[in-house]
Amino acid sequence: MARHWSQVQESGALLGMRLMFFIHRWVGWWLLKLCAYPVILYFFLMKKPARQASYDYLEKIKSHGGLPSNANLRYWSVKHFFHFGRNLLDRLAAWSGAFNYDNVAFHQRDDFLQLMEKRTGALVIVSHLGNLEICRALLNTSHAVKLNILVYSEDAEKFNRLMKEIDKNRHINLIPITEITPATAMILREKLDAGEVIATSGDRTPPSGGRQTSASFLGAPALFPQGPYILASVLQCPVYLMFCVRDKKGYQIFFESFASRIRLSRKSRDADIETWAQKFADRLSRYTLRFPLQWNNFYDYWHQRSSTPD
Fold first, then answer.
1. By 3-state DSSP, what share of the chain in percent is helix, strand and coil, each rounded to 5?
2. I want to staple 77 with a disulfide (CB 3.0 to 4.6 A). Which of 54, 82, 119, 198 is the partner?
3. Closest CA to 53 of 81, 83, 25, 30
């Protein structure tokens, strides 16, 4: 049975991040880049499950026309890993304030910022395609948007402390969450009423199993979390999608209005959730086919462990 993504340990993540910041601060980008790519190559050679997951994903991309019909998957998988390495470096630059936002293009940002000016808040469903941290470009404006990211990691508080060392203005806050309780909803409602943004992942199921539903993604069924749609129905707030991806010119940040409100009927609750999850999967599929090497889920996505809903 395939392992759940949470069981694919990111060994020494916090220690590694601190080491990267130390190298960046005291030596410079040149040494950091020099160190990063041999490490990525090492992981490609030594981490067979991640490599196989990359092959499987790229095979699906290829079958849907996202790669040339004669594409060599080993070659493209190496590129896939190296794009991930570039993503990590850009993430570090965004966290440390060293990222050049001149090459970031926005799509439909004005509509989103108008919503923020009204201080109504919004729920944003994101994914592990591209680089979420570049959304700090949005925060790098006169509109002081506060972003709260819901995460499943037990290390959220440690990451928050590290982020506080890096980002004195605390524009980004990580909120650990295992399930949606009335208390959680009240806290998030207060943040929305203050005009803040809540971001949650639409492409990873909770480590505890939780509520999940199947949707067709790149031609095969995959598990998606129900949480974003349940949360949206409880909070009754506008819902957006956000994808931040790199092209030859720089980064493109796409904001899409997903729903003005999400309502789940008691009689057809499961069917309603499946409909919304499929809509998200369709949009995610569109962007992965357009930017195939920027997919950052290196585990067996289509055969991840299923759990009985709570």
1. 50, 20, 30
2. 54
3. 81
